Structures are given as structure tokens and as C-alpha cells.
Amino acid sequence: MLKIQDVHLAYGPICAVRKASIEVEAGEVVAIVGGNGAGKSTLLKGIAGLMPVSSGQILFEQEDVTRLPPHRRVARGIALSPEGRQVFPDQSVYDNLTLGAYFRRLSNDALEAEVEEQFKLFPRLRERRNQMAVTLSGGEQQMLAIARALMGKPRLLLLDEPSLGLAPKIIQEIFDIIVSLRRSGITILLVEQMANMALAIADRAYVLETGNVTLSGTGQQLLHDPKVRAAYLGVS
Ligand code: ATP
């Protein structure tokens, strides 16, 4: 479904991702793990079109999307749920959700049905429908960011650090939702610092270190890899 070939991403002179090659098959959860500053978020921005790729190629469903602007990638079925709290703070939960479907030009009834679908998946958001996003808890904002991305009806969901700053119970809830999204047929590329949790649910995974892909395998292989355990799981 997604094929990233030798992709290079840089902030001016600072090279953040070097010759990264990553593949995601339809129906998979693929995790990218790595430490702070490894280039994980940058890679997702490159896939979403929020950052220009300096060299290499991004193929989505066999088509070259390397130079497509972000909104056209969304229209093709790629949605990014960004790191942290990047919801629209002064808009209500409901408005944040409808903005996620903006480009789809749905009728009011269809829009309501889609919002209802998200409320089924995230019941906490239903209770807070008219609340300003800024007043939500961290976990609720994260759920809203995911729900807003899902409003675009993506076939590939890019999830950037969904666990960031959240309590363990909420993290577990979010990971359960990721698993149920996979069950519903959505393909997921998940960037996480919580390597243990990400690898436990991932079909396959890649390790990114200072901009380079250094290791790849099934989630279980990496979970039991001595190097990964020492570097990212805090066990030796
Ligand atoms: P984290 O988990 O800490 O968010 P990450 O793996 O997502 O890390 P990135 O945010 O992709 O890492 O950053 C990769 C590198 O690019 C880092 O060295 C970072 O300092 C640099 N970088 C990120 N954003 C910018 C920017 N806007 N301008 C310049 N350099 C940047």
C-alpha cells in the first residue's frame, strides 16, 4: 500500500531522515520506534506532504505521491493524526471533527452520521461534544486528534506518538482503539516512543536511529531483539 524508497528529509542543512525505505502492506499496523530526535515525526510529515522530500520516492497504492500537496494526499486516503495536542484549541469537539471531513463535502446528514461513528468509537468525546478542545484532558485531546483524522475516511492512518504524556490507563485505551481500527480494515503506520506497547501490537516494525532505518522485522522479532530491548525497552 505504501512504499517509501530512499527518502531523505532535511530542515535546511539539518538532515533528519536519511535514505529511509519502509513498506506498509494493506491491513497492517506497522510501528516505527526510536529515541528522541530519531526522525520519526519528520518521516510522517514527509508522508503526509507537510514537508518536502529532498530525494527518494513515496508510492501510495502504486502511485507516486512524492510531490503531491497535503490535501491531495488526504483525498487519496492518507490522514495524519499529529503528535500531541494539535487539535484546534478554540473550536468545539464537534467543530474539530467536522473540519476533519472538510474536503469530503458531505451532506449534513452524512456528516452527522460520520460524527456519530466517531462518538461510538470515542464515547468520551460524545459527552464533550460542545466543549472547546483546549479544555479537554490530554487523553481526550489525543482521542480527538485521532477521531478528526478518521473523519477524512483514511485507508492509511499515520499516528504520531499517540501515547505522549498520557497516563497508562489512557494509553491502553488508545492502543485498544488502534487494534480495533486495524480490525475494521484501516492500515496504520504508528510512530511511538513506547516501544514495548507499539511492538506488541505491530505486525511489523522499523527502528529509526538518527535518521537511519537500522533494524526491521515483525513486531515480535523486534520485541525480543537484544539490541532493541537494551536501547528502547530498558532491559538488558
Ligand atoms: P521525538 O520523539 O523526540 O519527537 P522524532 O524521532 O519524532 O523525535 P523528529 O521530530 O522527526 O524526531 O526530529 C528529527 C530531527 O530533526 C531532530 O534532530 C530535530 O531536532 C530536527 N528537527 C525537527 N523539527 C525541526 C525543525 N522545525 N527545524 C529544524 N530541525 C528540526
From TrEMBL:
Top-level taxon of the source organism: Bacteria
Record GO biological process: L-amino acid transport
ABC transporter domain span: 2-235
InterPro entries recorded: AAA+_ATPase (IPR003593), ABC_branched_ATPase_LivF/BraG (IPR030660), ABC_transporter-like_ATP-bd (IPR003439), ABC_transporter-like_CS (IPR017871), BCAA_Transport_ATP-bd_LivF (IPR052156), P-loop_NTPase (IPR027417)
Alphabetized UniProt keyword annotations: Amino-acid transport, ATP-binding, Nucleotide-binding, Transport
Pfam families attached to this UniProt entry: ABC_tran
Keyword field contains GTP-binding: no
UniProt keyword Transcription present: no
GO MF entries: ATP binding; ATP hydrolysis activity; branched-chain amino acid transmembrane transporter activity
Family: Belongs to the ABC transporter superfamily.
Protein name per Swiss-Prot or TrEMBL: ABC transporter ATP-binding protein
Source organism per UniProt: Microvirga mediterraneensis
